[in-house]
Write a structure and sequence with these properties.
The structure is a homodimer. By secondary structure, the first copy, chain A, is mainly alpha-helical. Chain A contains six helices and three strands. In chain A, strands 1-3-2 form a three-stranded antiparallel β-sheet. In chain A, strand 2 and strand 3 form a beta hairpin. In chain A, helix 1 packs across helix 5 and helix 2 crosses helix 5. The longest helix of chain A is centred in the N-terminal third of the chain and has 23 residues. The N terminus and C terminus of chain A are likely disordered. At the A-B interface, helix 1, helix 5 and helix 6 of A face helix 1, helix 2, helix 5 and helix 6 of B. The first copy, chain A, binds a DNA duplex through helix 4.
Chain lengths: 157, 157
DNA sequence: TGGTTATAATTGCAAGTGCAATCATCGTAA
DNA sequence: TTACGATGATTGCACTTGCAATTATAACCA
């Protein structure tokens, strides 16, 4: 009926399923360890890598591949948990920064071993080094927007 | 600090970002065409492939990689839209089937061209045939649970 | 048989998400 | 300088999700 299940047509479908299965298991492990969910890790890590450990809200939304309103609420939660604080922008008084706190750094460090173990067991150990390189290269191609140079490797985890 | 951004360590992160970017764009296109979201497509397609175009709720949840309560509500919505109907199970009176309706088949057919175009442009055309095969093979490995044979190619869309 | 435990599906509730306003500020140009 | 349309961020609201009960039925076994 469609080419969903020809040998190449299945790739997309398998990609979606693999994502769902792996993320579900990672979330399960984080919750079992009484740690926050994956999106908090991503957010903390994005901030930790950022210049001055801070990001403007809209930059943040872009890194996290989500909407501004979602970021507003995510930062609300991170701020309530003491992991991040907001600072008004000097240059543009409409703007705000999300700034990583010391507690935020600690929390990311605390999450990383669980997350790392999951990535290792669920992803890296199931593949050869060559396959991992292939995945990286292919994902980069998929992210690249026509004409725009690759947006970097961050934002995901 | 971590191996997030070594050449192999980035693969997982890129995988997450690629998924987010592509799914976001596909959802955007479906919404722009006044069509339901991706999860409805997945659900309709899972049913269309299933024996008798029906699935027990818990099987459905497994295919869709989500919880039973989510499936209950998803089927509620699909049923309200006339795309699916519920049938009580004969053999096990606790059980229920979700059964694809003619309208459900029509809707999936109506969604497919938009979805197919998106997959083609955002995924297949950015990669070589060899790369697509590699992705398929790698995703299969990631999905496979130790000891359990690959759960098949479905579930994703 | 009667009682206990497991399984199928649903429901209540708290939390998260997406979209369309809204509010404040900026940039530009009459 | 004031008016106008853009931009940054937040908020309101409807919808979706996830988790922990709840309800109904099945399976097991003393």
């Amino acid at each position: 009926m469609t080419d969903h299940d020809t040998s190449t047509g299945a790739a997309w479908s398998l990609f979606l399923t693999a994502h769902a299965v792996l993320v579900e298991e990672i979330e399960r492990r984080l919750a079992a360890a009484d740690l926050p969910a994956l999106d908090w890790y991503d957010a903390l890590w994005a901030l930790e890598r950022a210049e001055g450990q801070r990001l403007r809200m809209h930059e943040f939304a872009h890194w996290m591949v989500t909407s501004r309103s979602n970021i507003t609420r995510l930062i609300d939660r991170l701020e309530a948990a003491g992991l991040v604080r907001r600072e008004r922008s000097e240059e543009d008084r409409r703007g705000a920064y999300a700034v990583l706190s010391a507690e935020g750094r600690r929390m990311r460090k605390r999450m990383w071993p669980v997350y790392e173990k999951a990535i290792s067991e669920l992803f890296e150990q199931k593949l050869s080094a060559a396959e991992i390189r292939q995945i990286g290269a292919v994902m980069r191609k998929l992210i690249a927007r026509p004409g725009i140079p690759a947006a970097g490797d961050g934002g995901g985890g």
